[in-house]
Amino acid sequence: MQLSPSARIALRVAAGFGFAVIYVPLLLVLVNSLNPDRSASWPPPGLTAHWWSVAWHNSGARSALWTSVQAGLGATGIALVLGTLIAFAVARHRFFGRGTVSFVVVLPIALPGIVTGIALNSAFSTVLEPLGVGLGLFTVVVGHATFCIVVVFNNVVARLRRTSGSYEEAAMDLGADTFRAFADVTFPLVRSALFAGGLLAFALSFDEIVVTTFTAGPGVETLPIWIFDNMTRPQQAPVVNVVAAVLVLLSVVPIYIAQRLSSDTATGSRV
Amino acid sequence: MTAAAQTAEAAGRRSTGTVRRLAGMLHRRPRLRLSLLLTAPLLWLAVLYLGSLTVLFVSAFWTTNSFTSEVVKVWSADNFRALLTTPVYRQVILRSIGVALAVTVLCAVIAFPLAFYTARVARPRWRPLLVVAILTPLWASYLVKVYAWRLILSQGGLADWMLRPFGLSGPGFGLPAAVLTLTYLWLPYMILPIHTALEQLPDNLVDASADLGARPGRTFRSVVLPMVLPSVAAGSIFTFSLSLGDYITVQIVGGKTQLIGNLVYSNIELNLPMAAALGTVPVVVVVLYLLAMRRTGALSSL
């Protein structure tokens, strides 16, 4: 399309403005972690790394991080198994209600988190509590896994749809049984999709706050819950600043891995 | 060959035999294979998830004892009647839909020129890097992004500092702050589909339009825009539904503003049936929005 030079300049300016809007808040979080002052007034009176060492020794933040990692790993594990099973059923079989299955998988992430949260909360308290199982890390993992299934499913089903079943048939014609064909042919084909789906599932779980609020028992505090609880306390502000900065820095890791994978899987879309 | 080795080999043969038989059975019976694949996930999703959802929405038709806050399991549509007739509820519902629409429009207005630049103006060599630059903030924590806006909008923060030379001050915490923050949060979900659509737009269509005498403005209106609109609609599904259900952002930067999610949250402890009834509102609105967007072909370009 032939654009006039002035239109090109206007678009460049608009795009520059857009990228500034996207990145200035993230940069501000990084700079603010070096702010010696407890208030967020701009510009900061100076720069110091003092709060980074304070945050490193903060036991609340540390144990919250550990809880988040545990919840994320648990939820990712369950989501990998269940998501892959559904993906194989939907991509390799025709059955009544196939469309409904793919719809139900998306539902936990399509509905507002608060609806999923209170539904699971009342179900857990009516079913599990009489059995003597209270809300705790276990219920957080169950809640997270429910909405993580969809990202694994999406990645694996997309891969299976692109690779036809003829590879497996060829393996079987050459004498491999169902298990052998899966291990030697199908699994290597979907491995990177599984990895991408697992990465997305972990990121989704690590970042989740609403469902966590309703499924975590007393004393179970994930990192987002910790940040939310401490955000409004002026005493804790510098430590929250550092934790926020660390999370911004960490968000580069999955992008780097996704680029290294350089696969066509939907690593970009988190839904 | 020793006797022990022979026995071991025979056992090995037997176990491979079992595995082969099992594999053969699975191969011959696709129904069995299918049911093995689906049992665990369907138990999880249908029984655990859909079951809890159903119980929640059934409980919307129950009431609570106003003294003890205990749920009374008597059927009535009182909660839904209250939803439609109480002025506060109606106001909050309309405000939430208004916020979701405002966020969607703002996202589209900011995203379009940005995506047009990254997909058609920037040098092809730079385009993959620009896509990464759009994607990266999606991986940054939701809460951290809201926190960033809390820092920007707080008293004496970046917004105040930037506006001071003009004799103005930042919007502070309130409804505009909530709209602004939600726009920031969901912006990448709008940029990406528009970028993809613009990138896939065939050059020869644009050339043909120019050959037939259309000026750039006309080409944009008659060729580019109709082909990109389904993607705008696809992006709007995210921006609209994510904004409608949000209550954390409003709690952090919204001041005293209440949206539908905050009403649900404040009712959970004292009146769970009312919270459930309020919770149906965003679900129904999002479903209606999805049905409306399906007519534009947005769902197939998701």
Automatic annotation (TrEMBL), chain A:
Q: What is this protein called?
A: ABC transporter permease
Where does the UniProt annotation locate this protein? Answer: Cell membrane
PROSITE patterns, per the entry: ABC_TM1 (PS50928)
Q: Which residue ranges does UniProt annotate as crossing the membrane?
A: 9-31, 71-91, 103-124, 136-160, 239-257
Primary localization class, coarse? membrane
Transport is among the record's keywords: yes
Do the record's keywords include Transport?
A: yes
Q: Which residues form the ABC transmembrane type-1 domain?
A: 65-258
Which species? Streptomyces carpinensis
Q: What's its membrane topology?
A: Multi-pass membrane protein
Cited Pfam families: BPD_transp_1
Name the keywords, alphabetized.
Cell membrane, Membrane, Transmembrane, Transmembrane helix, Transport
The record's listing under InterPro entries reads: Bact_Polyamine_Transport, MetI-like, MetI-like_sf
Task: Kindly give the PANTHER family that the UniProt entry links to this protein.
Answer: PUTRESCINE TRANSPORT SYSTEM PERMEASE PROTEIN POTI (PTHR43848:SF2)
Q: Which CDD domains does this chain map to?
A: TM_PBP2 (cd06261)
Q: Return the similarity comment.
A: Belongs to the binding-protein-dependent transport system permease family. CysTW subfamily.
